[in-house]
Design brief:
Blueprint: E1 2-3, E2 10-14, H1 19-31, E3 33-39, H2 45-56, E4 60-63, E5 67-73, E6 85-86, H3 91-101, E7 107-111, H4 122-130, E8 134-137, E9 146-149, E10 157-159, H5 165-175, E11 182-185, H6 193-200, E12 205-208, E13 211-214, E14 224-226, H7 231-243, E15 248-255, H8 262-269, E16 273-280, E17 287-293, E18 297-298, E19 301-302, H9 314-322, E20 324-325, E21 327-330, H10 343-353, E22 357-361, E23 364-368, E24 377-379, H11 384-394, E25 401-404, H12 416-421
Parallel strand pairs: 2-15, 3-14, 6-7, 10-11, 18-20, 19-21, 24-25
Antiparallel strand pairs: 1-25, 3-5, 4-5, 7-9, 8-9, 11-13, 12-13, 15-17, 16-17, 21-23, 22-23
Helix pairs in contact: 1-2, 1-6, 3-5, 4-5, 7-9, 7-11, 9-11
The structure holds ligand SPQ.
């Protein structure tokens, strides 16, 4: 796909369902009793990987565009998969399912694509082993393929060195099966969809600041779930509306869970016009319609507890910072190095190719904004968030921008280009 400068973007859209929440509906639905019905499920490749894995574990899942029905079998009735499980490109699938598999009375193996084969799994292997799990990286490099021999588990109190919802969730899911309570303390609060959904399914779970504790002997009950729009997908349109001249964009029914809404805070701190309307909170996962308008932006500092609240939005925020007057500093974001690509290196390389004044640091980026961008050939490194970020940059650059490997956008947002073109 090729992009050239736009002079205005206008309109209203609804982005697809939240990826993190969609994954969790499959996992909890599978180990709950009864049929879980999900509306607004994200039909992206990552969530389809979660469906495929649980089908291989003996769970019947009906998937139509309107409704996903998961016929749960209860905590103890998953079946061994005949083949190695394939998590595709999905870190969430790989890490969360490992927590469940660690407690099953059978052996499983799980792998994924070239990107997943580079992503660190010791962050879940270490705590799961402390609980008694028999889990090994087959190549001995701390990555997939993982071999997981289910074992009886014992609760632990784990102090995680990283603020990671995937680490926290893997431990809490294993804790459902453990003897005694299981707690996880994080340095900063990461997204809390697992905790909210576990409670909705009837699990006994206690949250105190950045510590979550789960109790065993659980019985989960199937639920009807409506998945809100993904704020990580809305982020591209928020940025597009703020930096493209003469623009006004409304994104309907976006999830604004306070553990995910850091981008709204940053856009407002940069001087962006961001208006929230029709705020609703009936399910514990609040939503709003968000309108953004072209704005004069100024640089900011993004750091500390804010980082986990916008970790996946940092690539598009780096683009936004190029259009702000002054300097934007992103720090404490070393986790960006272990995502689908090294998102610090890849953002810096591609922004420089477009003429931006940007430098990479050990834990983030420094961006001196206000320098006009020009079109370039962008290498997405098959990272969906990089590809979508540069589509937005390309709409605001002189000349033509081409994005290599942009088919990866289907990981989280299959209809992205169609939705973007609706605003032209
Ligand atoms: O699932 P995956 O591949 O890890 O996806 C990403 C993304 O950009 O879509 C990260 F690469 O999102 C993660 C996110 O960064 C999804 C997630 C979750 O659903 O629990 C949590 C975050 O990762 P982490 O490592 O901080 O727990």
């Amino acid at each position: 796909m090729r992009f050239t400068k736009r002079t205005a973007l206008h309109g209203e859209l609804t982005v697809p369902g939240d990826k993190s929440i969609s994954h969790r509906t499959i996992m909890l639905g599978a180990i709950a009793e009864g049929t879980t019905e999900v509306r607004g499920f994200l039909q992206g490749a990552d969530c389809l990987s979660s469906i495929a894995c649980f089908r291989q574990l003996g769970i019947e899942i009906e998937n139509t565009p309107e409704l996903v029905r998961i016929h749960g079998k209860g905590l103890h009735h998953l079946q061994p998969s005949k083949q190695i499980l394939d998590a595709g490109n999905s870190g969430t699938t790989t890490r969360l399912i490992s927590g469940i598999l660690a407690a099953q009375p059978f052996t499983s193996r799980i792998t994924g694509d070239a990107s997943i084969q580079r992503r660190p799994m010791n962050r879940i292997i270490t705590p799961l082993r402390q609980m008694g799990a028999d889990i090994t990286s087959e190549a001995g490099n701390g990555c997939v393929p993982l071999r997981i021999q289910g074992r009886p588990l014992t609760g632990i109190h784990y102090t995680s060195p990283v603020a990671s919802a995937q680490v926290k969730s893997a431990i809490l899911l294993a804790g459902l099966y453990a003897e005694g309570s299981t707690s996880v303390t994080e340095p900063y609060l990461s997204r809390n969809h697992t905790e909210l959904m576990l409670k909705a399914f009837g699990a006994r779970l206690h949250v105190d600041d950045t510590t979550s504790t789960i109790y065993p002997d659980q019985h989960l009950t199937a639920q009807a779930i409506s998945v809100p729009g993904d704020i990580s997908s809305a982020a591209y349109f928020l940025a597009a509306g703020l930096i493209t001249p003469n623009s006004s964009i409304t994104i309907k029914h976006v999830g604004i869970n306070p553990t995910r809404d850091g981008i709204l805070e940053v856009c407002q701190a940069m001087g962006g016009t961001v208006i929230l309307e029709h705020i609703q909170d009936t399910t514990g996962e609040p939503t709003a319609d968000i309108t953004v308008q072209s704005s004069s932006l100024k640089g900011t500092v993004i750091e500390g507890a804010l980082i986990p609240k916008l970790i996946d939005e940092l690539p598009i925020l780096a683009v936004l910072a190029c259009f702000a007057e002054g300097t934007t500093v992103i720090r404490d974001a070393q986790e960006l190095k272990v995502k689908e690509s090294n998102r610090i290196d890849v953002m810096v390389e591609n922004l420089k190719a477009m003429g931006a004044d940007v430098e990479g640091t050990k834990d983030g980026m420094i961006i001196h904004g206000g320098k006009p961008l020009h079109g370039a050939c962008i290498d997405s490194h098959l990272d969906h968030r990089i590809a979508m970020s540069f589509a937005i940059a390309g709409l605001n650059a002189d000349g033509e921008t081409k994005i290599k490997g942009d088919e990866c956008i289907a990981i989280s947002y299959p209809g992205f280009y169609q939705d973007l073109q609706m605003l032209y």
